[in-house]
User: Fold these one by one.
Assistant:
Number 1:
Amino acid sequence: MSVKDGNNARLIVTFFVKSRPSNTSSNATPQGQDSFRSQSMACGPNFSQLLAPRVAPASLTLDNYHTLAPGIFQSVYSISTPFPKPEKLRHHTSITAFEALHVLEIIFDLIPSPPPDRLRPVRLAVFDMDSTLINEEVIDELARSIGITSAVSAITARAMNGEIEFEQSLRERLRLLKGVKADVWEDLKKSVTIAAGAKELVTYLRGRGVITVVVSGGFAPMALWLKDQLGLDHAFANHLIVFPSNAAYPYPHLSGDLSPEYPIVTPEYKRQVLESMAQEHSIPLSETLVVGDGSNDLLMLGAAGLGIAWRAKERVQKEAPQRLNGTTLSDLIYVLDGWEGRSS
């Protein structure tokens, strides 16, 4: 995301203490409050002194600093141009050292033209499914149903860490699933769990009129089910070929291959969904949010106005524009829900 010289931009810096309560509306212990006060002091004007050299030659003015919830703080800066990309700030060694010292994580977000309502401009939100909106990896759950968990999980882990190409890993895993009953999805729907805070986050986004999408390297029956569960607008996922009963398998079953009638959901396709949906609805990419956890999400994370790796794999943590490791997706509302005029 770039900002032209002369624009009145805001840099929003949100600090998440790693030991914050999982329910941010709950009261912290006295010891926790003391810890948060200490970290809050470090994250205010003191952090500004650390940040200023990182954005030079741009000028930086701290407009507001406040506590959003126990262990969650936010600084609002006016900033001139030229300006480094937020992801470069996040990866700077001085910033990562500050995070380690104070046991917290920081999300940097640049707002080129702040709107009057002071809400983070977002009109399209695209989510990964497995280990993001749901807690499980569906293909691993499928493998468990036929007793080949170890073999499939090993391939999944290599793919999510970027050790093998996603399409190759998908086809290798699918071959191992040949013969699984075609109605296996009904059992999976009973065992799969929606991630904490997912419903709250989607409800918040839909309340703002944001178009919500799940795009998954998993499978269409589960993605469509999740779409209905969360009230998402669109779902994109892989389609499997189902064979009828035969001598080897006397019941409708998975073929072990993908349907050629639908595109394979590769990292490139995920980014394409983001870009095509934005274009279709005349939404600039700067007003998009992407949340995912795997290496196959990196392309769409990088293309988004705000790309956040959520509880991501190690490689993704290192390469994603922004990252957050929390216990509830509703934490992301604090990044989106405006900044000025709050009480500390």
Note: DSSP finds 15 helices and twelve strands in the chain.
Number 2:
Amino acid sequence: MSASSTPHNRRERRAQAHAQAQSKSIASASKGVPLSLPSRTPPSQKTLLEIAEERQLLNRRGDNDAVVDPPSITTTTINPDGSLSTSSDSPSPDPLHSTPLLDVILYTVTLTVIHFTLTFLVHHQYASEPPSTGPLFLSSSVFSATPFLFLVLVFILHPRASHLAAQALFAAMSIVAGGWLVYATNDEPYMAVMKKAPALGTLWIWAVIEMRWEWAVVCLSLVGGWGWWKGYTFF
């Protein structure tokens, strides 16, 4: 032991003794710990991750991002006479989840804004005087049945947009609304265009948005091909 590490008083000697005793206890405890690498062989039994995947506890979504309903809970009770009775309690669906109210409201507001924008553009093109934004908005979007009709359509069709029947309905709506809009803007008088174009354009845009991109491309191609065959102009 060097002179620099030699304790000079009782306090230093006690501290040095305590430190030596602690280091010895740590060294003796570490002797029982095996100093080896962990085993890299795969586990012989199923892991918790595999069990969770088998029971579908991690991903609660099915095809087309549809949420899978949780399994029903079966309860077994013992009757007074000793017999067993089972009852299945299926969780009730959440109405806000089955019909997302926020999505319906946002879609309705968006379609109403699109309808007002098309109404303003049509009036600006065909009217003799530029329209006033306030009265036009009140007449076309506030004191009108258009927002209510959009709300009903979105509430019924939007939650079921991934179904095949809904996709077919949107495809038919896209073809009819798009073809009718092209025909009206080319062959009908300007008063008819001012009344029909905003609603037809809004329905056409909404149908294209709700469809899968393959269906949307086919429907737009059909409308464009029909208009080209009839000799209509689009701009």
Note: Strands lie at 73-78, 84-89.
Number 3:
Amino acid sequence: MQKVLRRTALAKRQAARREANRAAKDRSDDRKLRVQEQSLINTDFRTRIIAARNSRREDWFLGPLAPKRDVGDAKDTYGTIGTQGLRGVEKAKGEWKDWCIEEGDRVVIVEDGHRDRGKIGKVREVRARAEECTVEGLNLADVAIPDYMLTKESDKRPFRTYDCPIPLRSVRLVYPLPHPETGILRDVVIQELRKYKNPPKGSTDLRPRRYIAGLDPPTNVPYPEKEPEEFEDNDVDTLRIEVEERTWVPTLRQPPMPSSIIDELRNKYSKFRDRHDDSFIAKKLREEEEAAERKNSTKKMMTPLKELHRKERAEKKARGKPQLSEETLHKIGEVMARSMPSRSAEPTL
């Protein structure tokens, strides 16, 4: 039985080691993919900036002789951006920061130099792992639609206007707070939001509460209310009366499921199994006892050489420990005296 337990423990350790190596490889591949995606986005961004700068310089030098650029392939897409700018690269687990911004919040853009700086809008989508959000009506841009997408859609416009993502660090929550003197509600830009570690007790909303950092006492900021979802009934839907109908009544004489279901849930012959039937344990114990008996039977078999060794050991034990005689001790003393170096005379001062 110990052999079976050792085999199970060894198989579990090997499986855990393989899983750890696979997880490390997945993290490495994910990191490489994120680096490649970010490199493609940065390359496209730099290429467009360099081309725009060169075109502006060329237009300034040539003046009326400057070429017309919205012709040819760029006739309908000149001045647009690619689809790469619609989504940022997601960060690895533990590398992104929770800015406590949710869909439906009113935010204001505070980034210096942004064309929509100071404008307030409603958050349409939040991508927490990429630390970005899209705000309705802000940071609009014309996006060129690839040809392969136009062939699959009914809308054949070569470009469309989308809300481009904005970094979460560039927006701040706008929340109405009462004035400390007059008590009149007015919109206030919240510089920092934080979350409690645990949700409130007895609440059905498992999300942790948000509060404004720096206020004493702390002021909770509720989450925006979501619009209720509308469900449309169809002919193929299952009726509620059919779901709640009791089709089986349990009894004490009949188990709710057959006893063999455990072998279907846990593989009976798996090398990772550590729960065994009593019959299997008894069988393994009998095998171990039989193996021990076979091993001891070889020890009981006596050969002439073994009998001689046993007789010599018995005689040696009967004699006891040997004792040194006076003559032997005298000879040992003589040998020790001859081997000791002679002492030289001590010098006089």
Note: The chain is about 35% helix and 15% strand.
Number 4:
Amino acid sequence: MTMAVPNPTPQTLDVEDDYDQLLVAEQRLKELHIQLREMRATIPNMVRPLITHHDSPVQLYQTFADAATTATREVTAFTQIMHDDQTKAVLDRAATSRKEKPGPIKPWRAAEHPDWLDLTVRDKDRSEIEMDDKSGQKDMVEEGLSGEVEQDVGTLIQTFNERHPDVKVHNSDETKIIKIEVPARIQMSFSIVPNANPRGPPTYNVSTSGTMKLHHAILRSIAARPRPHDLTELLEMLAAYHDIGTRKCDKCNLLLDSIPQFPAVRRRPRAPKPSDGGEQTWQALHERCS
């Protein structure tokens, strides 16, 4: 006999609306806003070669061709992030909320929420959510719906530190946010935020305080990693940026592309090279070469 799947309970909805998921959604919207704001200069930058003096028609053509290629790449990158699954989920959730509550949005006022800065209240709510989340994961394991075991973050970080003593990693027990500083020619500081998932192991969202286009390209590469649940793989990927600014692209063998920009993509090769002794390393690639 086939049993009907019950509708999500209010408790489940509370778990899905927890602080970490909202933080992930906010970070994605912020990234969209930054890219959209930068695109205001796309067309002016593309036509600038046409109103600038050049020594020869060949130089004019080459400069304009490079500007057009850069503009195409910027539009393509924004289109990809605008239509990817994570952005679609955030926008669909917002659209559903507006459909269910079509009335005017009430402005948030601190005076109406006197405990908004009380961390003890927030931590209490988060503890209750985590207890419900772990209980749900336990049930799924017993039913055979989950194939992964909850990761021991402390042990993973300790093992990672032993392999990469130059990389600074700080794990906050209160906020659950992992901060990592990678020694590199360019500032590489990241924050890893666990994204609680009531139906399985958490995923991990990454942000950075860097505002260069290079940092945005790095975040796009990180967001496209194939195993978003694997914290060890994520830490290793971030550590692979230690040579950013000095390492050439493994495909075109150039340090800078036509933007110009360093190889911002880090990716595992499909198969280890015999010269690596069977150990997989990380490829460095320009976005256009990946």
Note: Confidence is low (pLDDT under 50) at residues 1-16, 136-150.
